[in-house]
User: Fold this.
Amino acid sequence: MRHFFSHRRSDPRWPGQDGRCEARRFHRDFGDGEHGGRSPFGRHGHHGRGGRGGRFFESGDLRLVLLRLIAERPRHGYELMEEIETRLGGAYRPSPGTIYPTLTLLEELGQIAVSATEGAKKLYAVTPEGERVLAGQKAEADALFARMEAAGGEAPAAGKLQILRAMHNLKLALRLRLGRGNLSEEQLRRIVEAIDATATRIERE
Assistant:
């Protein structure tokens, strides 16, 4: 399956050894959204003809999103990042440097509280004050989540990013195993057969 794996590192369609090439292309294509995440959507969630560097969340939107997600059920910060990414089809993921300060703010406002801890993880739950805020901003929250749902269906990069992640995992696994050395001929044969078989299945899809 030489043609499947033989690509030059200088080819811009493929990531380099550490994926930096693709990361640069993704940053160029989609830009940075507000709050340190990436979004392919223009202002108010639409694809702008003037470029893709617009932000998805307006000021205060992320706080309302987190509050509503926590009201659905108690969640950890990392789980909230994953949930937003899932609802947006993988096209936007807020950074930890945004999520956790926003959670701290919500806690200081008395709208959420830590209900349990698992090691360093804090499980956040909504408070009566948070429920009051959500009730008063229900229309805004409904519109925001409808926009997120629509945007998730448009996410153009989600499938590509999943493939790139899988490719990177394979490359990393091979690099780590080959780095340990001491591969027998039988082990080497099994690895080659597994890669070739996977390549064949992909080509037949």
